[in-house]
Amino acid sequence: MVEKIIEDIEKVIKEAKEGIKEVKDISSLEKWRVKFLGRKSLLTQLFSHLAHLPLEEKKFVGEKLNSAKNLLTQLYEETKSGIEKIETVYNLSFPGRKISIGKFHVITKVIDEIVKIFSKMGFGVAEGPEIETEYYNFTALNTPEEHPARDIWDTFYIEKEKGILLRTHTSPVQIRVMEKYPPPLKIIAPGKCFRRDAFDSSHSPVFHQIEGLMVDENIKFTHLKGVLSYFIQEFFKREIKVVFSPSYFPFTEPSAELSILCVICNGKGCSTCGNMGFLEILGCGMVHPNVFRNVGYDPDIYTGFAFGMGVERLAMLKYGIDDIRYFFLNDLKFLEQF
Ligand code: PHE
Fold first, then answer.
1. What is the longest distance spanned by two Cα atoms in the chain?
2. Across all residues in the chain, what is the average pLDDT?
3. 209 CA closest ligand 1 atom index
4. What is the pTM of this model?
5. Among 82, 265, 271, 276, which residue has the least CB neighbours within 10 Å?
6. Domain range list for the chain
């Protein structure tokens, strides 16, 4: 009798171990549990034989039965938690987890957009270093030492004695490009610029500009007007009144400022345009003959125009952003909107 029971216990264990291998989900696990641990299972039936056994054997068989039951219970629990884990990971009815992917900064996007518009007009893209020399940032641009116009740009010097500085505008790229390539030329140059300005709602010590330069025979101010007016309509995607007014830059003559009818108040006057109804968005002009001489272009043959626009300013107007600092604070709530 005892031997038969022990044999049966071993058989049950063996079958249960085989059976559990086939279990792949909760419902097949439940079938397994009913079969090997349920009320009608062989193991439960074997327990009922205990009562008829003499004391010694009862103890011996009882221990065997209990350890078999513990073993099967353990198998059950382990398999169950394994299945639950898998089902949590692979349950296709769960809502998807949002994958956050990186995106370009709004300033990068605006630069790309501007580059695209000028590319359509045949402008190529050039770049220059952010750490510049006085020569490229000022001297070659017809702003020699002691020239009062140097004060227009409050400059961060890296090594004052050596004339090494952080460029205050993208205009030095004009010089670098003209030194390298003969005319005719048609380029824009996007990049970072630096000025010793307070960090407030409309100023930042680091900002972006896009420089433009077109040189050929017979380039006139009307070409400049045409190119920039076209750019403004394309960038703001609507007809916007533009006004050119006289200005001064050492490297252009004549020089002008381009203003557009305030896109915020439509010319009525608001805080963004300082009640003027117009907003100044870029500096421009006809390249000064001295600049051509500095790069070895003949000013009697070639003429050209140049312009420099502030990217943050344009982005603020396009998207109605009232504080330049948003671009630099890395606030995801702001950045994710673009
Ligand atoms: N470099 C000038 C500035 O930063 C802008 C400019 C560029 C003006 C090219 C004329 C021609 O203010």
1. 125
2. 92
3. 4
4. 0.72
5. 271
6. 2-90, 106-335
